[in-house]
Fold:
Amino acid sequence: MDPRTAPLNNILRETFDELDRVLKDHRADLLAHEIGTVTQVASGIARVSGFTSARDNELIRFPNNLLGIAANLDMNSLGIILLGGAEGLKTGDEARRSHRVVDVPVGEALLGRVVDAMGRPLDEKGPIRSRSRRPVDRPAPAIIARAPVAEPLQTGIKAIDAAIPIGRGQRELILGDRQTGKTAIAIDAIINQHDEGLVCVYCAIGQRGDSVAKTIADLGERGAMERCIVVVASGEDPPGLQYIAPYAATSMAEFFMERGQDVLIVYDDLTRHARAYRELSLLLRRPPGREAYPGDIFFIHSRLLERATHLREDTGGGSLTALPIIETQAQNISAYIPTNLISITDGQIYLSPELFQKGQLPAIDIGKSVSRVGGRAQLSAYRAVAGDLRLSYAQFEELETFARFGTRLDEETRRSLNRGRRVREILKQNEHDLLSVAEQIAVLLATTHGLLDEYPVERISECEQAIRRMMDEEQKDFREKIEAGETLTDLDVEALLSAARHCLRPLAEL
Structure:
């Protein structure tokens, strides 16, 4: 070694030794920050100590591939929402940071599949080969990126499409007591999109397994499953999975929306979602508020539903229409969760148990239902029937109440009652028996203009079938005009009524 360079070599060696010592100490400190210890395990949650730099909503890894979400960042411990069963987890187990948030696979590989809230397949069709993943909790599109709701979303249900229309990008709440047909309406709306090219996402939260299996079978039998994604967090799943399920489903739907496609998503139901979040919050010792729900229960639903919108063309041009479902108790729509969601959404479809018990199916109470946006997106042809339909039905319900007292009625009142009974009968519709726009317009025009007044109520169903056949077989030009969104002129209305009278004539002779 050259004596002249010896001092420099010694300095470099000492410097590298010092650097290596500092790095070893830093690695030890870093390791201590990355690994924690489980101090408590409860139903659906765990507490971990030892983390000093974990972030809110960060994914935490436990033994046996169990995952959790960092929810409470306390001074001495971390509250974790578990995303799986905690049977094998015990105090003293190791927990590790992942430096990422919960995400799910997205893309066309999910179409036709049934997955859990983490995007894992439940349908035994093999692994999902998705090229990309997205966080389950994403910010809603900015106001500047949104466009007005301008296109209709047809459900195939007369009472909704005519009186409570839904637009693409709208959030329409479906509410009512249990067993009143809420899910049936949402499933019919999905089935009716089969020929519309919409992607549909059905998110089952806290449902029984047999109920979800029946829904999947119905979608498959009617050819809707191939354009649908079913996300399931059943009642047997941990509350953590039920909590993230609607957010995961929305991330899957947003992939298609941001590519310019129209998407329909159904949350069935957010009442169970709120209960799962309340359970987790109470276990995490968060302060309870009204009805023991945490103070941010409004926020978790608003940040979910605000993601449903219609995007401007320069930001993608797609739309995400949300149909959240909630369950009321004893028709109490002024309870905490219903009022929260009514204030978040753009209207509601209320299903009455009294109408359900009377056999008026779907049991939609038109008086308590409203659409605050969809009327602007409704096809022009509906304007010939929608106003008269709502008015005549509202008048009929009021008159029918007074008529029960046995008072003597004048001729005009009897005519209104006669017309109203036929309007009520024509709004009845069997499950999965969906009508095209042209069929709805023709049937409702005939009803509101009195063509069915001379027929007994028990034969109204026959009259409806005759008019539907007439529109399918003979009125191709009118069908195309209505579906193109053109306004019906007085001459068009008269021509349709004349065709309806002609097709009803054989029934009058029976």
